[in-house]
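User:
Hi there, any thoughts?
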Amino acid sequence: MPESPKTISELTQLLGELADEQLDDAGLARLLELLADDPAARTYYLDFMNLHAQLQWKQANGDNVVVEQERQSADLDVQAEEPLAASSASPSAPLVPPIVIDPSPAGGSSLLTGGWLFSYGAATLILGAAVLISLAWKISLRDDAPAGRGPVAHDAPAAPGPTSRPPRSDVAHVARITAMADCRWRNMPAAAIGAEIAPGQSCVLASGLVEITYRTGATIVLQGPCNYQFDSPAGGFLALGKLAARVESTVESRQSAVGSRQSAGDSRPLPPKFIVRTPTATVTDLGTEFGVEVAPSGETRSQVFQGTVEVRAADSPDPPAVLRSDEMVRVGKTARGKLELRRLSASDARPVFVRQLAKAPMFIDLLDVVAGGNGVRGGRERGIDPATGLEDPLFVPKYRDGDHQYRPVTWHPMIDGVFVPDGAKRPVVTDSAGHEFSEFPRTCGQSWGSIWVRAAELRDGTPPRGEKCWMHAIGPMRQYTPAGRGLLGLHANVGITFDLRAIRRNYPDGAPTQFHAVLGIGDASTRRPDVDGLADFRVLVDGRPRFSRAAMRPKDGPIAVDVDLRPTDRFLTLVATDGGAASPYAGTKDAIVGDWVVLGDPAIKMTGPGN
């Protein structure tokens, strides 16, 4: 966007006169100067002329349209399929901040007059002229920046309101995702912990929570449904939803930094203030923690938890309201359609903001992870196809052929992948980094059913699936679930690998220290007297064995599994195979009949604050 409200006002007036075919030579020269000096002004110009042309076309076809209807028709529907209970329903929100232009800009020009053919011709002519002038003069924001750095950041806040567009940045990214909880995205289906966010990129969140940390250290938590665009390392545009921001710097620290730099002769600019823009307001951080909520109507509510912020109504000449701890304002339209900033009292209804995601839990429940959760929700009765890595919402009773391939699990960041091991095809890849293990026994290269998660106690009404759903056929298995959480079923032959690095990223306040479970085999003889299960089990870390138990039988009873995890460990792999050399049917399907390997209460113990 142009650098100041004054520039925007001047540019809008010149473009209005151009659209009305009333721009004189002096005005044209000034317009060319603005376009040559500022790439963002050229973007603003193209959006202006494009909107003008669309309105002219609609008017020529007899449509009674107004600018607000044009904006609404371009909105992206981000209605959450399953919104959070605390979130207000949102019928629509724009993917990026729309260019909303007053139908009567300064100078009295109207966007609804003039020829649309002229608009396109003028657009082409002026853009070409501006580019030529820009190349000849070699003037641009990028050229003014020091080598190896982006444009110099200005401490003054950006022009308020949705007419403001952020200057383009040369940095590769402005922020990265540092935590997520139950996210359902509209525009980032592959978003994961650690994903980088580029300038101008939008996060359109249907439901859930995502924590994002800026390069400057500022942290925001977006609560779905939400639509937020990242302007720069100094803030962004909240079109819809809730945002809670935490900025560590304070007014005093900035003033101290100014004094220190002046005394040291350091002329480098200070980091810019953190700014959240909305359709009706601009919220400027002065060193604080605060929340901003934007309703579907564009109404903005801002509340300060601690510290100080400035809130200004969009395009308002009035001074901003300064808010301190526990104070809140509302910016919305009056009955006459004008924006009004009003302070709210303690008795007024207040939004409920999520200010931070959960700290590291005592343990990560791997049953919940396999069921699709984040390790703390308690999900059960779901599974994974060991041959494809896809979700299994229902237990699928059939043989699964792994084709000797490692299958990444792309739908869950904490699960790296799955595989069906066969020592006859040596070595076997056990994780996405390519670690291999060469000591698996010769197997049939197949597994049965799904990797499945079951509660400790089967609820009334659980379908009696019998042997086909062996996880239900094995009965209560109470001796394997001392914590009462449940069972992970790994019918031989199958392997599943968890990503310890992703767990650390999802819970940055903690670290995995130990894998713990109770190991055993369900007694298949209760269903088939001719079957006596025999299986091997291993725990690998980065392809190397940390625990192994060969030739297990149901009569062996519960076996405690405790594997310490180091800070440098990346992948945790759990593998069940048939009994290998001890099996009379090694390498045949008969070898895995009744190999009902279970892990009771499997979890990754965490260390961190309070743990």
Remarks:
- Residues 380 and 565 are 25 Å apart (CA to CA).
